[in-house]
Amino acid sequence: MFRNVLHNLLRAKARDTVRREVEKTVADRVARDKNAVDRESENTACDVGIVFALEIEAGGLIDLLAEPVTLRGRGFVVRRGTLGGRRVAVATSGAGWDHARRAAEALIDGHRPRWIISAGFAGGLSPALARHDIVMADSLIEMTGSRFTLDLAVDRSTLSKGVHVGPLLTTERIVRLAEEKRALGEKHAALAVDTETTAVAAVCRDRRVPMLAVRVLTDAVDETLPADVQYLTDQTSHAARLGAALGTVWRRPSSVKDLWALKETALIGSDRLARFLVGLIESLPPSEEKGHEGKTAQIPR
Q1: Which CATH superfamily is domain 43-225+273-297 in?
Q2: Which of 33, 200, 274, 294 is disulfide-compatible with 61, CB 3.0–4.6 A?
Q3: In angstroms, rounded to a whole number, what is the distance separating the alpha carbons of residues 53 and 200?
Q4: pLDDT digits over 201-227, tens only?
């Protein structure tokens, strides 16, 4: 009987020892995994996330990224790198409201930016603005008349020539006709029009991430864009865009001149926008700083 009692005690002690070793092993593994996740989060976190619709819009800024890393998501591409010591994630979403929303959500979920900037091309709605001028939005307008007010104040006395602050209108499609642009400008008192910014703003509002909107004009209010521009912009891959361009030329050989002019304008606009964004990013205050609302942005010259 004594041997049975001793045997049972030894078995119980052995089980306890094994259990403690297993628990310790599991705890160590969990701790290592947590540290790995924390390190990965630190590596992927960024100071500023920027949402562009098209590669040609983002190209000027992407060229300036130091140590870029490319990540591909569902329908969008993200490039991580640094600009002036700031960690930046640049997303190209594809044209349109839904694509911009999806890319903004992915940036916030995957990179936890302190700021989001909606950036890219826009059409002018005011005769006071010229092609390649910069518009920094202080409010965003939807076609329904709904408005988003952006928190960050701007010292307008510091604005240089060609930089404007005012309302930005978002529509579902490219506004290409001069008469339509004039009418929208008068109706909404907006400086420019794009097709994505309010989508990004809605995500940032829901996620409580501060945002800015910066656009460069590729067409002034009195300029009419070629009829094929919407079709070309809607293509979601390089091959599709090439096919659309070739199809346009096949149907209308004279469009070669229009397409070349659009590309030249876009490249100049992308570089102009990139230079402005670099200065803006360097001037942004940390978003976690209490009372950042109403702080003055130092607008680059």
Answers
A1: Nucleoside phosphorylase domain (3.40.50.1580)
A2: 274
A3: 11
A4: 999 999 999 999 999 999 999 998 877
Q: How much of the chain is in helix, strand and coil states, percent to nearest 5?
A: 45, 25, 30
Tokens of 51: 């949402």
Buried b (16+ CB within 10 A) or exposed e, 197-207: bbbbbbbbeee
**Structure letter (DSSP) for residue 77:** E
| CB-CB contact of 192 with 217 (8 Å) | yes
Helix (H) or strand (E) holding 141: strand 134-142
Q: Classify burial at 148, counting beta carbons within 10 Å of its beta carbon; exposed 0-12, middle 13-18, buried 19 or more.
A: buried
pLDDT digits (tens, 9 = 90+) for 231-242: 455 545 554 443
Alpha helix (H) residue ranges in the chain: 2-44, 55-62, 97-111, 178-188, 197-207, 229-234, 238-251, 255-283
Tokens 């409010």, residue located: 139
| Token pair listed for 293 | 């609302």
pTM for this prediction: 0.75
Locate tokens 């000027």: which residue? 60
Tokens of 97: 């409201």
Distance of CA 60 to the CA centre of its chain: 14
C-alpha span between 52 and 239 (Å, rounded): 19
CA distance 70 to 52: 15
Structure tokens at 224: 């009419």
